[in-house]
Amino acid sequence: MTMTKFALVLAASALTATAVFAEDAAPVVADTDANGTFSLAEVQAVYTAVTEEAFKAADTDASGELSADELKAAVDAGAFTAA
Question: What is the distance of C-alpha 29 from the center of its chain?
C-alpha cells in the first residue's frame, strides 16, 4: 500500500470513529443568559424530566446554578437523561 492510500484509509477511519462518538455525545445545554452556568430552566430545555430536587442534588456547591463540571457529572452519573 502506498503512503497516499494509507493516509486516505487512516483519514476515513478517523472520520468514521468521530461520527460514532458524536452519536454517543450528550445533548448540549445552552447557556442562554451567557452567565457561564446553567439554570434549572436551561437544563430542563434539554433534559425535560429533571426535577428541582434532582437539580439541587447536582448543584454540589449550592450556588443555585450548575457549573459545566456539575452538569457533566450529573449526566455522566445518569441523573439527567434526555427525553
Answer: 7
Distances (CA, A) of 56 to 52, 59, 80: 6, 5, 12
Ranges of each domain in the chain: 3-76
- The C-alpha angle with vertex 67 and arms to 74 and 29, in degrees rounded to 5, equals 70
The CATH fold of domain 3-76: Recoverin; domain 1 (1.10.238)
pLDDT tens per residue, range 16-66: 333 334 445 778 999 999 999 999 999 999 999 999 999 999 999 999 999
The reply to whether the predicted model has a pTM over 0.85 is: no
